[in-house]
């Protein structure tokens, strides 16, 4: 274990885990954000789930967390890139929905939606939410921060619920709950790529290339 770290004391959290460093480094804040968002969605085994923004780091983390506990659950993901559909299916999604110009190319509705694209598409996502379903708005990948011209009576799906999660709300107990969950359900945490510190330029090039998705870890 490292004995020194140069960050504010308020952001240091002791954890109890046997995970190797490369896997532990791949968890915060991506898996924490996904874990807490899924808690807010109140998911059960019988639910169908849509991850809008399925190729994002949080989206893939949510998929792995759900698949660990619910191996047979229907978990669909969205992407704007049809060329990575096969890669996303290999990650564990049941099916991939193409997001074209802010609209999903499907008529399917879901019990739970993890919204990572955000305010830019929430109205469209609501059209794909089942009655008594829950949508958790966590990400803002669509580049919009606010809901404009939003009428909750009209724009929310019938008898549905809208919630959110902010990744800045970190609690030590919840972080350790995440680690316990990962251990209990043997959640897949492998980073997509591991680079050494001397390869940091290559790591940045890889991240900017958009050839993959998932977490990249630098080993010091």
UniProtKB/TrEMBL annotation:
Signal peptide as annotated in the record: none
UniProt-listed InterPro entries: NAD(P)-bd_dom_sf
Superkingdom of the source species: Bacteria
Gene Ontology MF terms in the entry: NADPH binding; oxidoreductase activity, acting on NAD(P)H
Keyword Protein biosynthesis: no
Assigned keywords, A-Z: NADP, Oxidoreductase
Protein name: Oxidoreductase, zinc-binding dehydrogenase family protein
Taxonomic classification: Bacteria, Bacillati, Bacillota, Negativicutes, Selenomonadales
């Amino acid at each position: 274990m490292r004995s020194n770290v140069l960050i504010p004391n308020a952001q240091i959290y002791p954890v109890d885990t046997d995970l190797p460093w490369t896997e532990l480094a791949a968890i915060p804040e991506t898996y924490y954000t996904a874990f807490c968002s899924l808690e807010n969605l109140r998911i059960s085994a019988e639910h169908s789930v849509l991850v809008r923004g399925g190729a994002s780091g949080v989206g893939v983390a949510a998929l792995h967390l759900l698949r660990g506990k619910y191996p047979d659950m229907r978990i669909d993901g969205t992407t704007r890139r049809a060329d990575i559909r096969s890669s996303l299916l290999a990650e564990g999604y049941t099916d991939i929905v193409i997001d074209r110009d802010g609209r999903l190319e499907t008529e399917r509705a879901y019990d739970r939606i993890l919204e990572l694209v955000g305010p830019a598409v929430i109205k469209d996502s609501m059209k794909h939410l089942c009655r008594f379903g829950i949508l958790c708005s966590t990400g803002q990948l669509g580049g919009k921060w606010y809901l404009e011209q939003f009428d909750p009576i009209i724009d929310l799906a019938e008898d549905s619920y809208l919630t959110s999660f902010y990744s800045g709300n970190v609690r030590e107990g919840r972080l350790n709950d995440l680690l316990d969950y990962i251990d209990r359900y043997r959640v897949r945490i492998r980073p997509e790529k591991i680079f050494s510190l001397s390869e940091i330029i290559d790591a940045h090039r890889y991240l900017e290339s958009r050839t993959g998705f998932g977490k990249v870890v630098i080993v010091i």
